[in-house]
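ugh ok fine here u go
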Amino acid sequence: MKKYLLKKYLPKLITLGIIAYLCFVSDQNFNDSMILFFGLLFFIWMFRIIYFSIRGNPKKVISDIELLIKLMMFVWYVCSLKPLRKWLRKIRYAGFSPKPYPFLALYGSVLDTHMMKFKLSPAFYRDKTPAARAALWRLLTRGAVRFNMTRDNQPFLCLGPWSVSPSDGLDQDFEKSLYTFLEQCAPVGERLDPDMVRKVIAYGHKDKGIYKYNFDNQYRFADLLNTGIRLDAYSRRDIGNILGMKRFLKGLPNSYNAPSEYTGRLPELQRVWPEYMTFAYLFGIENSTWRHLSQLMPPHPGDSHPLFYLLQNSKPHRQLLRQMMDSVSEATPAVDEAVSAHRGRLSLAWHAEELYDI
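structure:
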């Protein structure tokens, strides 16, 4: 995901930085410098749009118009104090230090939690990949995706049979949609190649005959990623628990070792750690949570969960899992943009309801 964002946006950010530097080092006051900066920016983009129109390159024209609209929306976002209002909303619902809350994983919805986190975030947060990573982890915990070994004792990921999820209905649809992509990559029991997974999710299948079927699944995948919720449909306690769960996972060793009012009610760690990892992927703190769980759960003969050994001593398995997670992360924004473009909407406008409370 980081490589994708750097490759796409870094040259544009460098260009903006140079223009801003030239404007603000001139002998003008701040307001005049701002007017000059945005005036130059608007002139450059209009020149590019006219140039590519004359050259007969409609794709570039549409791309530049979209980028100009994104820039104007971003300026409006900052100038309207939207980040400050989000930060105040977060304080209102959860306080400055949300109370650690360990029980969300027992009943929480990945997509609802994803959207709550999105709306409560004071940052300009558009990354949808944590939800896809969390869904892939859930497929692993249920055996719909599983590890296998070659004759040379080399691990590989393969597709297992679909099993109904006990999770929320929308979450189950989302996991089924991701599983459908994996079905296009390999039959049940055969090796899943991370590169093929990325290509199938983002662009379609090598077999042209099922490309339309792939797009229908892309649409469903993107639609679920952008499922909106209204914060007023939830109590402050429910919303505070979202941030409390993240705080609980970030301080996992202390949460289980230090005496507190909820220590005696904590669920058995051996039973719920896969769901803890689901939300760790959703919050983007999977590495630290993984390390903490490894410290808290030393191996013993009674361990029965099929993925438990991943926590302890299987570096090749973890590396393979990371490659698959990265493939899904790189493909997810491409799906989102492809679907929004097909519907004749700008990719940023696809998120307008969540971003701007329209």
